[in-house]
Amino acid sequence: xxxxxxxxxxxxxxxxxxxxxxxxxxxxxxxxxxxxxxxxxxxxxxxxxxxxxxxxxxxxxxxxxxxxxxxxxxxxxxxxxxxxxxxxxxxxxxxxxxxxxxxxxxxxxxxxxxxxxxxxxxxxxxxxxxxxxxxxxxxxxxxxxxxxxxxxxxxxxxxxxxxxxxxxxxxxxxxxxxxxxxxxxxxxxxxxxxxxxxxxxxxxxxxxxxxxxxxxxxxxxxxxxxxxxxxxxxxxxxxxxxxxxxxxxxxxxxxxxxxxxxxxxxxxxxxxxxxxxxxxxxxxxxxxxxxxxxxxxxxxxxxxxxxxxxxxxxxxxxxxxxxxxxxxxxxxxxxxxxxxxxxxxxxxxxxxxxxxxxxxxxxxxxxxxxxxxxxxxxxxxxxxxxxxxxxxxxxxxxxxxxxxxxxxxxxxxxxxxxxxxxxxxxxxxxxxxxxxxxxxxxxxxxxxxxxxxxxxxxxxxxxxxxxxxxxxxxxxxxxxxxxxxxxxxxxxxxxxxxxxxxxxxxxxxxxxxxxxxxxxxxxxxxxxxxxxxxxxxxxxxxxxxxxxxxxxxxxxxxxxxxxxxxxxxxxxxxxxxxxxxxxxxxxxxxxxxxxxxxxxxxxxxxxxxxxxxxxxxxxxxxxxxxxxxxxxxxxxxxxxxxxxxxxxxxxxxxxxxxxxxxxxxxxxxxxxxxxxxxxxxxxxxxxxxxxxxxxxxxxxxxxxxxxxxxxxxxxxxxxxxxxxxxxxxxxxxxxxxxxxxxxxxxxxxxxxxxxxxxxxxxxxxxxxxxxxxxxxxxxxxxxxxxxxxxxxxxxxxxxxxxxxxxxxxxxxxxxxxxxxxxxxxxxxxxxxxxxxxxxxxxxxxxxxxxxxxxxxxxxxxxxxxxxxxxxxxxxxxxxxxxxxxxxxxxxxxxxxxxxxxxxxxxxxxxxxxxxxxxxxxxxxxxxxxxxxxxxxxxxxxxxxxxxxxxxxxxxxxxxxxxxxxxxxxxxxxxxxxxxxxxxxxxx
Amino acid sequence: xxxxxxxxxxxxxxxxxxxxxxxxxxxxxxxxxxxxxxxxxxxxxxxxxxxxxxxxxx
Lengths: 987, 58
What we know:
The structure holds two protein chains of two kinds.
Chain A: H1 5-28, H2 33-36, H3 39-46, H4 52-65, H5 71-81, H6 83-86, H7 88-97, H8 102-110, H9 113-146, H10 162-181, H11 189-218, H12 221-230, H13 232-243, H14 245-260, H15 262-270, H16 277-293, H17 296-305, H18 315-323, H19 326-363, H20 372-398, H21 404-416, H22 419-427, H23 433-457, E1 462-466, E2 469-473, H24 478-499, H25 504-513, E3 525-526, H26 531-542, H27 544-558, H28 567-585, H29 587-597, E4 600-601, H30 611-620, H31 627-645, E5 649-653, E6 659-662, H32 664-670, H33 674-677, H34 689-698, E7 703-711, E8 714-726, E9 733-742, H35 744-790, H36 794-821, E10 832-835, H37 836-849, E11 857-860, E12 867-870, H38 872-889, E13 895-902, E14 906-912, H39 943-953, E15 957-961, E16 973-979
Parallel strand pairs in A: 11-13
Antiparallel strand pairs in A: 1-2, 3-4, 5-6, 5-9, 7-8, 8-9, 10-12, 13-14, 14-16, 15-16
Chain B: H1 5-25, H2 34-52
Helix pairs in contact in B: 1-2
C-alpha cells in the first residue's frame, strides 16, 4: 500500500497548519488561560522528551535489548518520580538566578564564561545526531508511505533523492514555525501549548497502533499470550539482554539524558510555567511514559508476526501498512511526524539560545542606538536556521547508514558526559572549572573519536591501534565507549578538582548552588540612588529605550515605586534586572553588563549579612522546613515577634546606617509604616526622625535623654538609647539597636511638679511676708484704734475707721496668702452664710477705690437674698479678682455685670464684661498659677489661680464662656456655681 | 531541608523488595506485562504520597 506524494504532502501541511493554529491562538489569548496554564498542558509539553526516537527507534531497541529498552522510560520516569531530590535543586536554582540553559547553569556554577562556551560547543556536537535522527525519521517515513513496496532497501540511496527532498521541505516548515513562535523571550506559551498538542498526538498514535496490533493483528490478549507460547524465543529475547551489562549502561545513559539534554533541561527546569505542576509531575510524567512504553512490545510482536520487510524501527508504520489499514497508517505517520517536529523545534531553540548567549553576544557588542529586542530576535532567528541546516547537512552526510537507535545512542552518550559536572553543581561544591574542563575534554574527545567520527566515516565498527593499545571504536562498541568515556571524565574531573584551587568567586557560586546553602547573603553597597540612575547607566550598554523598558519591567515585577530610593529596594531592583537580562541575553552577558554598569562596592567588613534578604528567603521556604531547621525558624519568628510587639519603640540599623527592623511601637510613635522605611538609610527617614536617629547612631554616647522634637506642631520629649549588636562569630560590630522612649508625659508631670514647687515657695514667702507685715499692720491698727478714742473730730474718726477697715483687709489678705500656700482645703466649719449681693457690693467698692485704673459701670444684679455657705472675705476676694480682671480687659466706660440665681441644688453667680474675650486655645490655661496675658509687672498670674483655688475650697466650679456675644465676638463671662446651703445652716 | 523522608523510605523499600519483584517479573511463565504492573503500582504510590502531602511542592 502506497500513498501519493500529494496526499502525504497534504497530510503534512494540514498537520503543521494545526500546530501553527494552536500556537497562534494561544499567543493571541484566544485559548482560555485556564487551559494554557493547566498542569496537564505542562506535563504533555514535557513529552517532547519522547522524540521520533521513542516513537520508532525504541522498537528497534526493544528487539535487540528486550526489557532493556524500558530503561529509556524507567530512567527518565525515576528521575521525575524522585524530582523532589533529583530536580528540585536545579529548578530552584533556575528560578532564583534565571538560569536558562545548561550552559548558563555551568557558567553560573563554575563562574567562568569560557565554560559556557565550551559547554555550548559540546551540546551542539551532541545534538547534531539527534537532529539528524528526527529528520531521517521524517524522510524515511514519507519515503515508506510514497515509494516503499517492500522490496527496495531503505538504506541504499547514494544520491540526493526524493527522500532528502521531503526532509528538506519538512525542515523548512519547522524552521518557519520555530522562527515565528520561539524567538521572543516571553514564556512562549504558544510554543508550549503546541508542544503539548504534539505530545498528545504521538501518545494517541502510539496507543492506537498498540491497540491495533493487539486486537487487529492478534485478536485479543489471550491470543497474544498464545502466540508468545508458540514463539518462546520472543519471550526469551525479552529477558536475556536484561542480564547483560548493556541494559545497565542503557539505564545510566537514559537516566542522565532527562537533565543533560538541552531541550529537556529547558522544558523541565526553565519553562516551568505552572508553579505547582512540579508536584504533579512526580506521578503524572511517569504515567505518560507508562502509556508511551506499554504499546512497544505488542507493536514489535505484531511486526514480527506479520513478517514485515521493513526494519524493526518502522514497525509502528509497518504494522498498519502490512494489515492494509490506511486510517491507522495515517494516524501512525502523523504521530511520528509530530514526535519529530516537537523535538526538532525544541532542540533548535535550546541550542540556538545557547550559541547566542555564549558565543555571539560575548563576541559582538549590541548596537545601543537601536532597540535591543529586535537585534536579539534577529540573531536568534538566524541561529535557529543555522542549527536546523547543520542537522540537515549531517543527515545528508550519514546517508541513512545508521539506524535511529544508533544515532540516538550517539547523542545520548555525548550528553552523559555532563553528568559529573551536573551532579557537582548541587552535591559537590569542591568541583571546579579546571576539573570540569579537563573531564569534559577527555570524555568528549573519547566520544568524538569513538562515535562521532566513525559515524561521519560511515563505519559501524573499527579498531585503532594507539601505542600498542587496541581501541574498538564505532557504534557497535557503544557500551564500552560509554563506560570508558564517562569513567575517564569523572576520574579526571575529580582528580583535577581536588588538585587545583578554586577561586573565591567560584567558591561563592558553588556555595550558592549547593543544596544546604550555608552562605550568608552578603549585603553589598550599591552606589546608585534611584531607578533613573540605573536607566542612565544601563543605557550605555543596551540603549536607552531598552534600559528604560527593563527597569520599568523589573519595578513592576517587584511592585516598587519609580521614585524608590531605599538601598534595599534598589539592590533588589538590580538583581531583578540582572535576572531579566539573563532571560534575554544569557547569564554570562547579563552579569557582565550589570556588574560593570551597576557595580557593588564590597563592604569594609565582610560580615554585613543582608538580614532583610535572609528574612524574605526564609519566609518563602517556611512551609518546607522540617526538623531542626523548622524549630530554628520558629525560634526566629518568636524572637522577631517579641521585638515587633515590644511596647517600646525600637529599630535596628546596619553598619551602613540602613534600617533593618522597625517595630510596631515605632510605627505607632512615628506614624511611619515599616514597609516604607525598612531598607532605607537613616538620613532618608522623614523629619524629625531621620536626623535625630542618625545623630544618635553616629554619636559615641549611648544614651540621649529628653530630646525635644516637634510632632504635629506640639513639643514632644523622647529619650533614645543605643546598643551595638556584635556579629555572632566575631568581635566586629555589625549593627545597632536604638530604643526610643516617649517621655512627654513624664516631662509634663515634672514641669507641673516644678510649678507646684514654685507655688509652694511663693506660699512660704507669703507666710514670711505675712508674718513680717502682720506686726506693723497690728501696730497701725492699734494706733488707729487709739486715735479713734482720742478725738471727736468726725473727719479724723472717719479716717481712723477707714484705716481700721483697711488694716483688717490687709490682715485678711495676708492670711489668705498664707492659707493659699498651705496645702489642703479649709475646713468647712469656718463657713458661714454669706450674702453674695453684699460681697459683690464690697468688691465693687474696693475696685472703685483704684482710681488710676479706667472707670467702668458696675451693675450688681444679684438677688439680695442669694446666700451661699462660705467665707465672706474669700468670696469677696473671688469677686475682686474677677472684677479687676474684667476691668483690665474691658475698654473704659463699658459695663461689667454681676448676676446670679438660686437653683435647687446650687447657687450660680457670674461676672460678665464686654472685653475682647479670651482666645479658645488659652482658656484651659488661664486658671493655672502664674499664667497671665498682662504685661510684665502688671499681673502676677495668681489672681485667677487663687480664685479657682477658693472656689474649689467651696466645692464649687468655674465655667468660662467666651465670647459671650457670638455675633460681635466679644465679652467674657465667668460663671461660678456653688452648692446651695443646707436649710439648717445659719442665716 | 526538604521533606524527603517518604521518598527515601520508598527507595529503601524498593531496595528490599527488588530481588523478589525482579524474580516475579522475569519468570518465563508469567505475562509479558508484569513489569508494567509494577510500574503502575509505583505511580499509584507516588500519586498517594503527593496527594497526602499537599504542601510538598518541588
